[in-house]
Amino acid sequence: MGRVWQRLAVAVCAGLMLLVLVQCNLLKGQKPGDKCVTNGQFKCTDPSTALLCQSGTIVSMPCRGPHGCQGMGTASQCDDDLGQAGEACLSGSGGENYACGTDLKSELVCTSGKWTTNSTCKGPGGCKVTGTMVHCDDDFADINDPCQSSPSEANYSCTPDKKAEVVCTNNKFVESEGCRGTKGCYIENNSVYCDTSMAKEGDKCRHADSHACSDDATSMLKCSPTMVWTKQQACKSGCKVKGKELDCN
């Protein structure tokens, strides 16, 4: 499955990820906290900031993209390719507005006028903006990281220490199973693999009736119908992994 999520970052009245002011009064002399009339109107106040009319109140809107805030009055353009969670933002009239976090390790979405973290991007590709597209590499993720998945395809990742496989459930990564084998959790050809040749009794497992050596090599474990590793038998001479086979004597 694809490991890099691609989403269109919507702009206002523009084909690029720039928020372009149209039919704007100049918000002359106004400051954050002042009342305003036309929501969505803004103007640049310095090379990296704009004043935005949001829900009837003037707020400061950072323009953290490489082009910052440029132009004056109706020609103002705010580059919001980058942002920080909690800061003011403007959604496009045609849909949601996405950006990368300034650390390039998260994808943001404009929700109710504020940037919120949509997904972490801890894979080697991080978060990148290409034209109007936001690319988030979520090959690696920690448990409880925010995430996105589609109804037709589950979203699996490896934890950064490669000791567990995680799956996106209700917009958070949760542990799917431990990967205590020598290969750990790894990704090949856009697919996630988990080496479960060794496991710890009580850990989660995904495939009922599969087997593993215990992490202390003293017993053979079996994945129970409740998807938990349970002890099947003791191995007096130890449990060994030999290729795809387990040796328990």
Task: Provide a descriptive summary of the structure in words.
- The chain has 249 residues and is mainly β.
- It is built from no helices and 24 strands.
- A hairpin with a 5-residue loop joins strand 21 (219-223) and strand 22.
- Mean pLDDT is 86; it is low at 1-26.
How would you summarize what this structure contains?
With 249 residues, this protein is mainly β. The chain has strands at residues 4-8, 18-20, 42-46, 49-54, 57-62, 69-70, 77-79, 82-83, 98-101, 106-111, 114-120, 127-130, 133-137, 156-158, 164-169, 172-178, 185-188, 191-194, 198-199, 211-214, 219-223, 229-234, 239-242, 245-248.
Characteristic key phrases:
249 residues; single chain; four-stranded mixed beta sheet; mainly beta
Helix content: under 10%
Percentage of residues in DSSP E strands: 35-45%
- pLDDT averaged over residues: 86
Physical arrangement of strands within the biggest beta sheet: 8-9-10-11
Uncertain parts = 1-26
> Sheet with the most strands?
4 strands, mixed
Counted beta strands: 24
User: Termini distance?
Assistant: 39 Å
Number of H- or I-type helical stretches: 0
Structural class based on helices, strands and sheet pairing: mainly beta
Q: Which word captures the global form?
A: elongated
Helix-strand string: EEEEEEEEEEEEEEEEEEEEEEEE
User: Measured on Cα atoms, how large is the radius of gyration?
Assistant: 25 Å
